């Protein structure tokens, strides 16, 4: 088998598009070796080393496919400038290609699309058009700004957008409106307003921005809603299910939880053969009973892949009549559940399991904080003796087993947004992690492992939650980064999750570099995904792992439920309503397309994560608008040759401090240590460094922040702080630093340019 390096070299040197067939032929691979090559190429794709271009040809990630679709984004004189229409190389700047036109020059304008052959020329790229493609109206989400004299500009909600765009057709929109616009075409890029979405600062607008930007389906069809209403009337028959209503089963969730899909119970095992052990039950809403394979509900759930949780609203995978009502395990109500029965020995090992369809009546819905306070003796609760104490005693055993397993222990803060009744942000805080949180997590992990192993025992198809070990390339990058802090990291050792735990233990919890080291360890990890093949879960240090515990909000869990129903003969009698599909087990058609399903729900999961993160950033920026002009405590999160990024301690958000605002010193960027160093003063700016900065601007629409040194600027204007002073600034760049004059706004003032983008 060729190595990763050999494959990358072949792809780079190949004069023709290099697909799996071409790579196999080049290295003389046959039979089983081709299967191994397919797996290796998938690994390299997941690791970000290569990407797949149209036509299933591979190219080096960060490079450009040899034949690809480009769109013209600018015209420099007579030279069209294009970018790839699709770009997945996370963290790598979008490349700009100079288009070499044959025949009549100027035929291509901004917004045109071409199929082109590309080649790298020196440090840049050239594109040779093969044929012109039809235009696709690119939609832009933004806020209308009045430039005066009847001219309007569109300010994109994307914080990465470098320029505002002139509006050619504004329609009924007015300054301040959030709108959806489309490219108007022509040599100079303009947009026309297609739809007015309203006030960008109105309640739920920040979430709606993300929904529109990422194309998240947020409305159910009449057919789906009608089907949800019909299936929600299906009876929960105790005669057809195991009856668990006599047990004090409780649900422990966040105080702001929108749905309740899991509940737990534990008690000491009275079996003498398991002395010191426990019996536990994890009850999960029996969503497969209501959402039948091939139904309208099933098709919609598969399309959404998962629920999306914003601070102010939820875009559910299933209609509210199911997700918030019939499938939500609420106190005092009979609910259909799939029960995972666990036997846990005195060392915390799960020694056996079984799955049943059951009926349960939840004794209480308890918030994490209240459960913890009751255990700590700070709150009186009626469920303390019958439920909480046995659960904690059993969890102590599970926790011991977890510690022995040594999963990856990254203490990454999660921000919690609080809103008032009008939907305005009132606070941002780090969500507290209590033993109650860890308790629920460990019961869920135990049930997820049991589901995976139970299906493996029956040789049943299933969807695994896959998390592979870090690639060597990422480990080399981590080693080089840690070396700048004089931290040794040996590559010759067997890499386990405990390897990183030992590394983090060397850094004092109060050390300013600890958050940065933790983030660098996180970046070295591969991204978890869904797969019908088992590769284990590296982060949790588990050989087999599936998602079983949240079928209300994850389609993967629903597939696992259906697989358990089929493997363990848990099918229910057909419903009397002939309009409702009969089967609840995993169908043959679903099994045949598990690969495609896994790819689709892995994509929707990433989409949800990005949308949720961006929306949180917008709320953080909205909260910080009250502090514009003030000096705040920050920590540097990243350094580049053009400046450094910082986050507000205890709140979050990410903002840039341009190197142009750091004074008159000459700053040199050291790439290895990611540090800016003043040549004359020796002043350093490095990741992890804590410092006080003035908040210059907080833009809630894009979620972006901008900072400056405390001594720079004092005049606060309508849009934030204006930089005072002026004079000379040094921009450190690559390969050679350049000197620019700046004006009072801290912007370059002596650059010759053409047009607004110069």
Tell me what the structure shows.
A hairpin with a 4-residue loop joins strand 18 (308-309) and strand 19. It is built from 17 helices and 38 strands. It has six domains: 4-60, Arc Repressor Mutant, subunit A (Orthogonal Bundle); 67-133, OB fold (Dihydrolipoamide Acetyltransferase, E2P) (Beta Barrel); 139-200, Beta Barrel (OB fold (Dihydrolipoamide Acetyltransferase, E2P)), CATH 2.40.50; 222-466 and 532-615, no CATH class; 472-525, no CATH class; 628-742, OB fold (Dihydrolipoamide Acetyltransferase, E2P) (Beta Barrel), CATH 2.40.50.140. The radius of gyration is 28 Å and the shape is globular. It has a five-stranded mixed barrel. With 758 residues, it is an alpha+beta fold.
Instruction: Briefly note the structural class of the backbone.
Output: alpha+beta
Specify the overall morphology. Answer: globular
Average pLDDT metric = 86
Distance between the termini: 49 Å
Major beta sheet summary: 5 strands, mixed, barrel
Number of domains: 6
Question: What is the total tally of β strands?
Answer: 38
Count of helical regions: 17
Looking across the biggest beta sheet, what order are the strands in? 4-5-6-8-7
Which residues form runs of ≥5 with pLDDT under 50? 713-758
Radius of gyration from the alpha-carbon trace, in angstroms: 28 Å
> Helix share of residues?
25-40%
| Beta strand % | 25-35%
Question: What are the salient characteristics of this protein?
Answer:
758 residues, alpha+beta, Arc Repressor Mutant, subunit A, OB fold (Dihydrolipoamide Acetyltransferase, E2P), five-stranded mixed barrel, 17 helices, 28% strand, globular
């Amino acid at each position: 088998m060729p190595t990763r390096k050999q494959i990358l070299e072949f792809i780079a040197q190949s004069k023709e598009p290099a697909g799996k067939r071409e790579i196999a032929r080049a290295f003389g691979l046959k039979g089983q070796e081709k299967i191994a090559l397919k797996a290796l190429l998938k690994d390299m794709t997941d690791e970000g080393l290569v990407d797949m271009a149209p036509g299933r040809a591979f190219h080096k990630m960060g490079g450009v496919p040899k034949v690809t679709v480009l769109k013209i984004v600018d015209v420099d004189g007579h030279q069209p400038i294009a970018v790839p229409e699709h770009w997945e190389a996370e963290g790598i700047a979008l490349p700009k290609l100079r288009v070499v036109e044959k025949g009549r020059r100027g035929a291509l304008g901004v917004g045109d699309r071409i199929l082109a052959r590309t080649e790298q020329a020196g440090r840049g790229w050239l594109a040779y058009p093969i044929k012109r493609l039809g235009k696709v109206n690119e939609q832009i989400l933004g806020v209308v700004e009045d430039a005066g004299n009847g001219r309007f500009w569109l300010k994109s909600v994307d914080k990465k957008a470098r320029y505002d765009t002139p509006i050619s057709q504004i329609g009924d929109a007015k300054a301040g409106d959030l709108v959806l616009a489309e490219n108007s075409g022509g040599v100079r890029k303009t947009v026309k307003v297609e739809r007015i979405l309203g006030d960008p600062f109105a309640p739920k607008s920040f979430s709606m921005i993300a929904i529109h930007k990422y194309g998240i389906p947020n409305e159910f069809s009449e057919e789906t809603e009608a089907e949800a209403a019909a299936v929600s009337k299906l009876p929960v028959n105790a005669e057809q299910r195991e009856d668990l209503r006599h047990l004090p089963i409780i649900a422990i969730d966040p105080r702001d939880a929108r749905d309740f899909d899991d509940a737990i119970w534990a008690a000491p095992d009275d079996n003498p053969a398991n002395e010191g052990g426990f019996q536990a039950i994890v009850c999960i809403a029996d969503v497969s009973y209501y959402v039948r394979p091939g139904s309208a509900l099933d098709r919609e759930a598969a399309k959404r892949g998962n629920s999306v949780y914003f601070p102010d609203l939820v875009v559910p995978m299933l209609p509210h009549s199911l997700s918030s009502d019939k499938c939500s395990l609420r106190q005092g109500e009979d609910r259909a559940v799939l029960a995972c029965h666990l036997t846990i020995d005195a060392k915390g090992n799960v020694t056996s399991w079984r799955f049943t369809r059951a009926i349960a009546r939840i004794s209480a819905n308890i918030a994490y904080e209240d459960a913890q306070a009751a255990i700590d003796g700070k709150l009186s609760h009626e469920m303390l003796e019958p439920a909480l104490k046995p659960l904690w005693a059993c969890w102590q055993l599970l926790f011991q087993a977890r510690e022995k397993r040594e999963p990856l222990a990254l203490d990454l803060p999660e921000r919690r947004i609080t809103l008032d009744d009008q939907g305005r942000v009132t606070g941002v805080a780090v969500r507290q992690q209590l033993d109650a949180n860890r308790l629920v997590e460990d019961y869920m992990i135990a049930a997820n492992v049991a589901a995976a192993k139970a299906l493996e025992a029956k040789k049943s198809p299933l969807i695994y939650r896959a998390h592979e070990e870090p690639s060597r390339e990422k480990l080399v990058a981590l080693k080089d980064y840690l070396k700048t802090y004089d931290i040794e990291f040996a590559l010759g050792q067997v890499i386990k999750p405990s390897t990183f735990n030992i590394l983090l233990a060397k850094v004092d919890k109060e050390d300013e570099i600890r958050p940065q080291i933790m983030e660098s360890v996180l970046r070295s990890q591969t991204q978890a995904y869904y797969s019908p093949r088992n590769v284990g879960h590296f982060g949790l240090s588990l050989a087999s792992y599936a998602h079983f515990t949240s079928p209300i909000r994850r389609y993967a869990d629903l597939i696992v439920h259906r697989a358990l129903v089929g493997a363990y003969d848990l099918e229910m009698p057909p419903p009397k309503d002939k309009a409702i599909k009969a089967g609840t087990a995993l169908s043959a058609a679903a099994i045949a397309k598990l690969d495609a399903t896994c790819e689709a729900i892995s994509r929707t999961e990433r989409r949800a994560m990005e949308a949720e993160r961006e929306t949180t950033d917008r709320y953080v920026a909205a909260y910080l608008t009250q502090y514009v002009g003030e000096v705040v405590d920050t920590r540097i999160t990243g350094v580049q040759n053009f400046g450094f990024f910082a986050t507000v301690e205890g709140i979050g958000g990410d903002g840039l401090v341009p190197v142009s605002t750091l004074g008159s010193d000459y700053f040199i960027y050291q790439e290895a240590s990611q540090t800016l160093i003043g040549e004359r003063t020796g002043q350093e700016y490095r990741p992890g460094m804590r410092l006080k900065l003035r908040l210059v601007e907080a833009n809630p629409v894009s979620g972006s922040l901008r900072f400056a040194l405390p001594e720079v600027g004092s005049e606060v204007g309508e849009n934030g702080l204006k930089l005072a002073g002026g004079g000379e600034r040094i921009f450190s760049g690559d390969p050679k630093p350049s000197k620019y004059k700046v004006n009072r706004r801290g912007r370059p003032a002596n650059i010759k340019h053409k047009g607004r983008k110069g």
